[in-house]
Design a protein that fits this description.
single chain; about 375 residues; Rossmann fold; Dihydrodipicolinate Reductase, domain 2; six-stranded parallel beta sheet
């Protein structure tokens, strides 16, 4: 059967643009899907940047105005890899143009924008995906499998950390193409939307909805030079955030994120403790999942195991999620493969009629938790999360 082409228009030439472009180029090498991505258009507001990206990654043409992609007949999918402030306008326009949409996280600047994006894709009935790529780390997917198999049992505690250290120096400016994450007007929030959004999505995927939160945020460097204006301006984003959470299943959660943890580069961890077992993951050792099994299934019932203890599972066997598509057991895949796995699931969802998750509606719920966290930090009180 001849492959069906999937014309791709990608907006944004930054770090995420590279990871997504790599996934499109490698998809059919590893996954037997019917669609073949064709890199049609790369878009960036800086013409030279777009031209160089086009040549490096093999796009057919470059544009500086994303609106031109909406009318292009050869584009089936719009991929949004730009700063958060532009997500809503582009996604809504893409949906109204009948395009499929993939959007980098967080979904939007706030839940109100996210609601508009969800309405647009659902009214247009176009396939859509929010890029929480860490779900596609094989170890995290295995954690989901373990939870779904009932091996953790009734959950009691969930704790997550996401720590970095790249903004400690007060000399780091804000704004511009490279440092827009430090600019409140471009990002909407700091570590809450950039890092904790990942932690929140993973937590709710594994442990169910978050019901309410209470939070504390801090901005350690109050003013930074702005790359665009050249002036020293107030910093509006949160450098650090800690919050407590109550899950709908009755378990308790703790979440911590900062860009001021000296020595931590991308330290993303979670631990779930239940009546029958626990799981622990650290993104800086992504090929491992730690699992503690207190009870085992024997003769149709759970009994205490005589082999209790943490096991460090090397998640590289062919029976582990996604790993049958890659190398022999014992060999690892990397960060870039999470985007490849994500794209494979998205395309498979198009072909099967069962949409891949997380879609925009799922991303909206994470956005609502982020909004509640920030509102709690402003008011110093518990905040209910809108269902």
């Amino acid at each position: 059967m001849a492959a069906k082409t999937l014309g791709v228009g990608l907006i944004g030439c930054g770090f995420m643009g590279r990871t997504h472009s790599n996934a499109y180029r490698r998809l059919n090498n590893f996954f037997p899907v019917q669609h073949r991505p064709v890199l049609k258009v790369i878009c960036d507001t800086v013409p030279e940047k777009a031209r160089q990206f086009m040549e490096v990654w093999g796009y057919e043409r470059a544009e500086t105005d994303w609106r031109k992609l909406m009318d292009a007949k050869d584009i089936d999918l719009i991929d949004i890899c730009v700063p958060n402030f532009a997500h809503r306008e582009i996604a809504v326009a893409a949906a109204r143009a009948g395009k499929m949409v993939i959007c980098e996280k967080p979904l939007a600047m706030n839940a109100a924008e996210g609601e508009e994006m969800v309405r647009a894709v659902e009214e247009a009935k176009v396939p859509n995906l929010i890029s929480f790529n860490y779900r596609r780390v094989p170890s995290i997917s295995l954690a989901k499998q373990i939870v779904d198999e009932g091996r953790v049992g009734k959950p009691f505690h969930y704790r997550a950390t996401y720590l970095q250290d790249w903004t400690i120096s007060a000399d780091v400016p804000q704004g511009g193409d490279a440092l827009w994450r430090l600019d409140i007007k471009a990002a909407g929030s700091g570590v809450t939307g950039d890092l904790l959004a990942h932690s929140i999505d993973t937590a709710m995927w594994l442990n169910g909805p978050i019901r309410r939160v209470v939070a504390r945020t801090e901005t350690f460097v109050k003013e930074r030079k702005h790359v665009v204006s050249g002036k020293v301006e107030p910093v509006g984003i949160d450098d650090a955030c800690m919050f407590l959470a109550e899950f709908a299943n009755g378990s308790l959660g703790t979440f911590e994120s900062t860009r001021y943890a000296r020595g931590r580069k991308n330290f993303n961890t979670f631990e779930l403790n239940g009546a029958d077992g626990s799981i622990y993951f650290d993104l800086e050792e992504p090929e491992y999942l730690q699992f503690f099994e207190y009870k085992q299934q024997q003769s149709g019932r759970k009994v205490e195991s005589h082999l209790t203890g943490w096991r460090k599972i090397h998640v590289t066997n062919s029976e582990h999620p996604y790993m049958d598509r890659y190398w022999v057991p014992g060999t690892c895949i990397g960060y870039e493969h999470t985007f490849l796995n994500q794209l494979a699931d998205f395309v498979a969802g198009i072909e099967s009629g069962t949409p891949a998750q997380p879609d925009f509606r799922s991303g909206l719920q994470t956005q609502k938790v982020c909004d509640a966290v920030l509102e709690s930090a402003r008011g110093g009180r518990w905040m209910e999360v809108a269902p």
